[in-house]
Each structure stands twice: as structure tokens, then as C-alpha cells.
Amino acid sequence: MNKNMKKFFNVFSTTLLLIAGIYFVGPQVETPKLDPQLPNVPQNLKELHSLVTTQEAAIENIKPNNQSVLLFEDSIPKKTKYSVLYYHGFTASPKEGDPVYRDIAKALGANLYVPRLYGHGLEEEEPMINFHNDPYWETAKQALAIAKTIGEKVIILGTSHGATLALLMGQDPQVEAVALYSPNIRLSDPYAVVLSKPWGLELARLVKGGHYHTMDRLTEEKKKYWTYITRLESGTHLQKFLEMKMNKETFEAFNKPVFMGYYYKDEINKDDVVSIPALLEMYDQLGTPNSLKQKMVFPEAGEHVMTCYLSTDKYDQVTEATLDFLNNIILKK
Q: Buried b vs exposed e over 284-295: b needs ≥16 C-beta within 10 Å?
């Protein structure tokens, strides 16, 4: 190798190392702690109801009818054999699961809790810019603690990123079964993984040409219950959560009865929000025995969200299938 060639390779190697160094020390979304310890909540059901209403009333910028929902099966609050807990998805609100969660709770004679998760359902000048995983996780944990207080056993329902939470919270000993609707194991956009990497936010801004992500295909009525324009920062936290928690180790540790539903008709008409191959792979890796799990495709759902009358007129199919699963697997015990 002559001197010129050697000099070229030295300069080239140094440049590559410099570029790599700049990349890896670049700005990156923080890693959350995600403390597993559940909080204490009042065991007196009237006091518990007061806690929920007081917490929501203290937040002045909640959009109308986006508040957390706590419904007792009887006019006199009492603990029921089962409670139903519904986790809504990212950018959504409790309305997202209506009427599926109401109908399931009614059929089971169960108390119902539907939390408005942290950072959601708010009127903000910079929508969801304050979304972070740790306070989000804390509201999900409190919701489980509340569900455990209002029911002897808990059935968790979740849509999209709410199903992500359901998988994690569902490992609690008091949880009897979980229903996952369009679970967010990985986003359908293959480039979304970049969001949690160094320079992820900066790259997203370049691609989007600004600071916001806008959801299309939302009716004016749905805009009342979904945050349809969000700051890109929130997406980096979402992706970080998936990166940390949606993996084979999590799936193999999960051993509860589970129902999973998703929208797929053909390669054109299918869920375009979450990755269908990823959710099917997750299902196969679950530690749940095959006799206690069921997956079902809903080809006529027409939407990522299958649990709300604002998204699809086939929500009753989801309710019926979920109840059939619960009756066959859980209630016959």
C-alpha cells in the first residue's frame, strides 16, 4: 500500500469514527423508570369514586366528555366478582372503547373503570408536548389498583397502545383475563423505530417538515375525543416504550387467558396503524397455553379502532366475540 493510499484510509477511518461519535452522542428521548409498584387507593368505594372525580376536576383543560369513567354495576357501590378495566390507545380518550366496554361490563355484572391516561384528552396549544412515559405509566398503574378495588378479579381490555399496557398490567395475579384489540407491538411504519434513537426527533422534524403529526380520516365528531394533531416529541416517548417493553421476554412471561382481535381483509384493506406481523408474532410467543388464548380477525371492521361506534358499525362483533371467549374460558371455571 503506497503512502497516499494509506493516508486516504486513515482519513476515511477517522471520518467514520467522528460521524459515529456524533451520532451516538446526539440528543435522544430519555429512558423512563417505569416503577412496577402499584399505588395505594382508597378501599372505601365512595371515597374511591371521590378520588377519581376530584383528580379529574383538578385538571381544567380536559376536553368535554373526555374524563375518566367509573361506573358501578349497582346504584349502591359494592365490589363485584369481576371488574372491567379498559385502557384507551395513544392520542385517544375513554370514548374510544364505547360501547364495547359498557356492554361487556353489563353482561358480566361488573363494575367498570376507564381511565383517561396521562397527557390525553386535553385542550393544549402544543398538543401532547408534555407526554412522558413515567407519569403515563403511573396513571395506568393507578387504574389497575382501582380495578382491583372494585372487583375481586379483573378483566382488562385495551385498544392499540392501550393493549400494550394491558399486556404489561395483565401479569398482575388478580387479573383473570385480557382482551387485546389491534395491539400496538410495533407501528406499521418501519421507520418509526428511528424515533427513539439518537437524533430521532430531529429526523422526524425533517421528514414531517415541522413539529407536528396530523391524523387524517377523522370526522369532526371523532376530533372531540382524539388528539388529532400532536407534537412529534410525544411519538418519541411512545416508540421508547415499545422498544423497552414489547419483546419476547415480556410475551413469554405472560400466561393469562387472552383474546386478540385485529382488522385484516386483504393487503390493501387492513390495519395501517400497527404492524400485523408483529402482533401475530407476539401472540405465538405468549406464555399462555393454546387452550386459553384465541385470535380473531375482523375483516369487516374497516378501522384500526374496532371498539367504538364512531369508528365502525361492526363493534358488536367485537363485543360478542370477546364475551364468547370469556364465557368459554373464564366463567366456566
A: eebebeeebbbe
Query: What are the extents of the domains in the chain?
Result: 48-329
Task: Provide the grid cell at 202.
Answer: 430531529
- The distance of Cα 136 from the centroid of its chain, to the nearest Å, equals 10
Identify whether the C-beta of residue 266 lies closer than 8 Å to the C-beta of residue 302: no
Q: Is the peptide bond before 99 cis (omega within 30 degrees of 0)?
A: yes
Give the span between the Cα atoms of 170 and 324, in whole angstroms: 20
Lookup: cell for 329: 374460558
pLDDT digits (tens, 9 = 90+) for 223-271: 999 999 999 999 999 999 999 999 999 999 999 999 999 999 999 999 9
- The angle formed by the CA atoms of residues 41, 44 and 47, to the nearest 5 degrees, is 75
Dist. CA 184–CA 154, nearest whole Å: 21
Tell me the CATH number of domain 48-329, given options 3.40.50.1820, 3.30.390.50, 3.20.20.70, 3.40.50.2300: 3.40.50.1820
The C-alpha atoms of residue 318 and residue 242 are separated, in whole angstroms, by 25
Question: Which distant-in-sequence residues (6+ apart) come within 8 Å of 329 by Cβ?
Answer: 177, 257, 292, 294
CB-based contact 80:73 (threshold 8 Å)? yes
